[in-house]
């Protein structure tokens, strides 16, 4: 195979700027799929991805393109996840490429994720071709966007293809630019094997299917291979490349190629994204750079609404984990919610996706507890624990100090809303880093923010305070010492463990008050008065009361229609079954989740 | 002879009230005649299937049965008397609305044995009557009441409603004083319930939810206000010598509605007419609710045709055989609607098991919460237990 005829690339963009649509169009125009086979956004496999218009897992496809020079080229297009939660996966996908197409919306111009992604691509030494998309929109202003790309990113953009991925306009220009402007891969097919894992997927028949880019050497069927980070060894059963929506086996993957391998691997944990595959007999002296083990950032408790579904939830989580090495879970129990799991996620989107998949694909009703970040608790005895469940916080007398995770956030916003957004960041304990105008009407603001301030409703608040104009991206920056306390909620004098959370001491009162107010609305009235209290330690800092129900009579009886009367009583009784009993109080499932959104409204 | 009760449904109204979700509608006289003929056929059919019964009460409800012309009412009562054995002391009630009675009609009622009338007043305030979509005003009611008394009826009920939109204690007091001044033997005081499928539902559904949740309301009284209205009614009526014997029913000199009490005591009853319900031999049945279908079936049966049905009677839309568990639940949630409650001995006699063996923990919990009390072998709800009776009674439903 002639390396000079291969192009490995990805498409990067801000969300909604048309990345997946362009990918679909390229696949369609190169004849990889017939129109009939073409389903909108082929690369987004899951229903959920298609619905939300986001890419969750990396996907790859091999395309044959006959260029204007009369030669046939192999394109390996790798579609990357487009969300900050999956930043590491994105970086590994980029490492599998030699070039990138940067898609920028002709109306919206550069947004926060555009910058984050393009910097990520440049970090991996990728050649980047800018493409202006959506030029068919009435509000399109390609000239302004070209200038923006040149000024802000420093990429030559005067000759950037101006396209409409939706209508198919000028896609040919993009294909030619890939051939002429992106580099061919390098690599010695006879060198010791180094293949980068950029994703994997579990197949019940073949085991784990490992997506890889061969950087050096050649990967063949029958090879004995080792994963350099995990040390796991396997016999390669199959190698191949990616057709659209199917795997096409071949004999070998030489240096420069993107493809997959299977080796009867039972567990995705053995084939970590970022790891390097090498031969057992002739190992590479060192792995490819950049591997790291990704750790969950956000934890929450997931409980089945119906306690009897606990084993079903466990099975479902195990199945999801086969495809998602970043998902972690371990059993836990809650006094209020019974048996469930403490689950770790890359971020809030990851959490929402898992939750939605459990509900949709596995038909489970879930109760979710407030998400928590991982706090570091330094104890007076000199030891440190990583706290993922607020209920496990040691007694204050044993705590020396605590630390919380910090992110660096980049927010791009039109100048009208700069003040409002800075206020928001200040309220969320942000520390100002910098602000620069990227053009007259737009600025890029940088702040350091505690992660726990952005996992609840920061994004919603950002959107509402900028009327939807702000875009946002963030990156983990480590840990910072902080004054943190555990806020407990007592309902009818009983602590409800599932409602406890860790909060900055300065905002504890405010949070506690809002929690109580919210719970007051969520908890139905009972036959007795129910105090709802927020407490830090033994000190009650906020209180609300659900008044006792005074009157609930079924007055009339229609011609002896007793069945109807009984149905009403049954409904009353049924309603109670859907609640969680805490002491004498029945708490609706929804109450556990509604407290997550404590917006100012 | 098994004592039974009869309920006869007349689904006709001059005009549908805005809050009403009962099975009734506006039909012309031709349809009324057809229906009554069908009803009489059903009475004959049902009586043939239930030999050996003696009727202790008859209740003709609606709709507005008093809207029927006197010859139709006569036809119904005559058919009942020809078909069933009637206790000479039977209570025979008819529901009436002001403006649908005349002295001639009332004289016919008396002559055919009707001995109790229930008059739907609802309110003595004309603005409230208008809001409810009633066809009468207060003066019309006074006229009707006078006709009723002059015709010699000495067992009369007046219906009133609490919890109306914008109702204040003052307005309610006016209604209560206007009614008690006339000294009817019986007063039913119902709380307004916003039912799905009524114009009131469209108008007040959000308010009703707020009321239920104890939040501030727009037009309906808040939960707290409606509680006060309901309590005020109770105290007012008791002061005037009306003794509460069921959640919403008050009687003077022991003139309770025997028919209604039969429901709470689970006396067997046969429902006749459109959509009516029966309890017999521990089977609960409901008649079909489509008036045309009802007439067609009845006419076919009268013509001697075979009418196929998936139920034991072609008139039924549903039938449910009550298990022992069902019967025990009913015994409790119906019996406890009565102020005097239920007795342990009745429970034992009925089910051959001690009430404590089934409901011991629930009774203890409710007693501890102050919602229930026991005296001389009787178990009954306390005042505050009655206030929240829905909540309390639902606890007597047993797990499957």
Short characterization:
The complex is a heterodimer of chains A (601) and B (400). Helices cover 25% and strands 35% of the residues of chain A.
Summarize the structure in words.
The complex is a heterodimer of chains A (601) and B (400). Chain A is of the alpha+beta class. Chain A contains 14 helices and 33 strands. In chain A, the strands form 7 sheets. An 8-stranded antiparallel beta sheet of chain A has the order 10-9-15-6-7-14-11-12. In chain A, strands 21, 22, 23, 24, 25 and 26 form a 6-stranded antiparallel beta sheet that branches. A 5-stranded mixed beta sheet of chain A has the order 2-3-1-4-5, with helices on both faces. By secondary structure, chain B is of the alpha/beta class. Chain B has 2 domains: 1-263, Alpha-Beta Barrel (TIM Barrel); 323-393, Arc Repressor Mutant, subunit A (Orthogonal Bundle). In chain B, the strands form 3 sheets. A 9-stranded mixed beta sheet of chain B has the order 7-8-6-5-4-3-2-1-9, sandwiched between helices. In chain B, strands 10-11-12 form a 3-stranded antiparallel beta sheet, with no helix packed on it. In chain B, strands 13-15-14 form a 3-stranded antiparallel beta sheet. The longest helix of chain B has 21 residues, at 29-49. The radius of gyration of chain B is 22 Å and the shape is globular. Chains A and B meet through α13 of A and α8, β10, α11 and α15 of B.
């Amino acid at each position: 195979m002639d390396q000079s005829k291969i192009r490995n690339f990805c498409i990067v963009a801000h969300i909604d700027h048309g990345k997946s649509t362009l990918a679909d169009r390229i696949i369609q125009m190169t004849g990889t799929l017939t129109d009939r086979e073409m389903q909108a956004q082929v690369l987004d496999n899951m229903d959920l991805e298609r619905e939300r218009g986001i890419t969750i897992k990396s996907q790859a496809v091999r395309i044959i393109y006959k260029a204007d020079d009369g030669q046939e080229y192999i394109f390996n297009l790798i579609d990357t996840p487009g969300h900050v939660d999956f930043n590491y996966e994105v970086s590994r996908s980029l490492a599998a490429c030699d070039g990138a197409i940067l898609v920028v919306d002709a109306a919206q111009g550069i947004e926060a994720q555009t910058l984050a992604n393009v910097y990520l691509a440049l970090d991996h030494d990728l050649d980047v071709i800018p493409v202006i998309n959506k030029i068919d929109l009435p509000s399109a202003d390609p000239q302004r966007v070209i200038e923006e790309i040149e000024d802000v990113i420093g990429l030559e953009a005067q000759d950037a293809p101006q396209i409409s991925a939706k209508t198919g306009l000028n896609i040919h220009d993009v294909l030619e630019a890939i051939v002429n402007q992106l580099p061919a891969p390098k690599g010695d097919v006879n060198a010791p094997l180094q293949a980068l894992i950029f994703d994997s997927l579990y197949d019940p028949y073949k085991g784990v299917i490992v997506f890889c880019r061969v950087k050096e050497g050649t990967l063949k069927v029958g090879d004995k291979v080792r994963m350099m980070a995990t040390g796991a060894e396997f016999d390669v059963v199959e190698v191949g490349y990616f057709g659209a929506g199917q795997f096409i086996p071949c004999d070998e993957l030489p240096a420069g190629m993107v493809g997959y391998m299977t080796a009867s691997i039972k567990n995705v944990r053995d084939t970590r994204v970022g790891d390097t595959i090498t031969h057992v007999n002739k190992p590479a002296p060192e792995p490819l750079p950049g591997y790291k083990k990704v750790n969950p950032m956000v934890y929450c408790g997931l409980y089945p609404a119906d306690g009897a579904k606990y084993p079903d939830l466990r099975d479902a989580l195990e199945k999801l984990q086969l495809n998602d090495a970043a998902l972690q879970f371990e059993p836990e129990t809650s006094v209020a919610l019974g048996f469930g799991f403490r689950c770790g996620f890359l971020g809030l989107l990851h959490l929402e996706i898992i939750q939605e998949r459990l509900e949709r694909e596995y038909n489970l009703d879930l109760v979710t507890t407030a998400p928590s970040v991982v706090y570091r608790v330094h104890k007076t005895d000199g030891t440190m624990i990583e706290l993922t469940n607020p209920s496990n916080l040691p007694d204050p007398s044993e705590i020396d100090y605590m630390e919380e995770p910090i992110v660096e956030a980049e927010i791009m916003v039109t100048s009208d809303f700069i003040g409002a957004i800075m206020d928001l960041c200040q309220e969320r304990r942000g520390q100002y880093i910098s602000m620069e105008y990227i053009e007259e009407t737009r600025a890029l603001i940088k702040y350091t923010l505690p992660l726990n301030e952005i996992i609840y409703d920061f994004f919603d608040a950002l959107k509402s305070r900028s009327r939807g104009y702000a875009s946002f991206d963030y990156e983990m920056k480590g840990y910072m010492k902080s004054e943190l306390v555990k806020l407990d909620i007592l309902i009818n004098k009983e602590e409800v463990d599932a409602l406890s959370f860790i909060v900055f001491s300065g905002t504890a009162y405010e949070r506690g008050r809002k929690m109580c107010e919210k719970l007051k609305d969520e908890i139905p009235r009972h036959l007795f008065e129910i105090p709802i209290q927020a407490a830090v330690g033994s000190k009650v800092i906020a209180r609300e009361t659900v008044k006792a129900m005074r009157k609930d009579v079924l007055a009339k009886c229609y011609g002896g229609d007793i069945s109807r009367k009984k149905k009403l009583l049954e409904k009353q009784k049924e309603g109670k079954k859907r609640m969680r009993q805490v002491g004498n109080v029945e708490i609706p499932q929804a109450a556990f989740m509604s407290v997550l959104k404590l917006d100012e409204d | 002879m098994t004592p039974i009760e009869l309920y006869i449904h007349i689904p006709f109204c001059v005009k549908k009230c805005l809050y009403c979700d009962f099975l009734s509608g506006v039909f012309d006289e031709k349809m009324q005649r057809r229906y009554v003929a069908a009803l009489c056929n059903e009475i004959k059919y049902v009586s043939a299937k239930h030999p050996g019964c003696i009727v202790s009460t008859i209740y003709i409800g609606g709709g507005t049965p008093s809207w029927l012309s006197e010859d139709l009412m006569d036809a119904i009562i005559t058919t009942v008397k020809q078909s069933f054995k009637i206790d000479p002391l039977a209570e025979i009630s008819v529901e009436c609305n002001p403006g649908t009675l005349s002295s001639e009609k009332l004289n016919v009622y008396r002559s055919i044995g009707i001995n109790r009338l229930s008059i739907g007043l609802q309110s003595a305030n004309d603005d409230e009557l208008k809001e409810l979509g009633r066809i009468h005003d207060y003066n019309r009611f006074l006229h009707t009441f006078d006709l009723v008394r002059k015709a010699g009826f000495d067992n009369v009920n007046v219906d009133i409603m609490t919890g109306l939109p914008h109702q204040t204690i003052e307005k309610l007091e006016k209604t209560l004083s206007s009614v008690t001044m006339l000294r009817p033997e019986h007063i039913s005081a119902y709380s307004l319930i916003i039912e799905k499928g009524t114009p009131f539902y469209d108008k007040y559904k959000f308010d009703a939810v707020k009321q239920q949740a104890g939040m501030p309301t727009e037009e309906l009284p808040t939960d707290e206000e409606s509680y006060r209205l309901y309590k005020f009614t109770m105290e007012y009526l008791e002061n005037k010598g009306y003794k509460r014997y069921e959640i919403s029913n008050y009687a003077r000199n022991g003139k309770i509605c025997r028919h209604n009490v039969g429901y709470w005591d689970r006396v067997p009853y046969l429902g006749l007419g459109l959509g009516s319900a029966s309890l017999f031999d521990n089977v609960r049945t409901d008649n079909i609710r489509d008036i045309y279908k009802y007439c067609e079936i009845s006419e076919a049966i009268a013509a001697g045709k075979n009418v196929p049905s998936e139920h034991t009677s072609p008139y039924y839309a549903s039938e449910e055989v009550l298990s022992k568990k069902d019967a025990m639940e009913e015994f409790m949630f119906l019996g406890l609607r009565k102020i005097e409650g239920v007795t342990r001995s009745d429970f034992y006699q009925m089910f051959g098991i001690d009430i404590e063996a089934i409901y011991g923990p629930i009774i203890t919990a409710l007693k501890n919460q102050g919602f229930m009390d026991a005296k001389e072998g009787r178990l009954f709800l306390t005042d505050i237990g009655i206030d929240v009776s829905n909540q309390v009674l639902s606890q007597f439903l047993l797990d499957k």
